[in-house]
Amino acid sequence: MTTITRSYRDHQTAQGVVRELERAGIATADISIISNNTENWHKNGGADDDAGDGAATGAGVGAALGGAAGLLAGLGAMAIPGLGPVVAAGWLASTAVGAAAGGAAGGLIGALADAGVSSDEAEYYAEGVRRGDTLVVVRTKDAHSATAQKIMDREAIDYTRRRESWKKEGWSGYDAEAPAYTPEQIRAWRTTMY
Q: Which three-class secondary structure string do you get for 15-26?
């Protein structure tokens, strides 16, 4: 099995990628999506320390964004340590939440590492989600990896350029203790990045 990981500037782009992967025959069970949902969390009355209300609101948002079939129909809200509230579906999201609930270190980073993603890349992807990106991760047989990679590369954020940009700003790695970005911070960051 090969693990392919890409990040996208917004959940709509990532959802299009997920739909295309499913149409290409990639099994829904082998696709995961994690999207920062901080804006909807705050807009709809959730609070970072009140997972119940926020999760219910996020689940409604996830269902509305998801569509009627495949992985996206299973989108739901959850809190991942270091990221706060996210809308997510798939095996990776379950692993990240399960690791955190069981006291394992790492949350999303640990789940990505378990899937074969290098620690440097895992930190980058976790930081991207914290800042408002949407992550899509596929595990696939080698025979399907070229197809999946071609689909996922079309609108993916350039990992190398983004990472270098962050380093110039002083970023040295993901900090699970850092507060989740507020909706205002995400909007401001997107304005400077895109």
A: HHHHHHHHHCCC
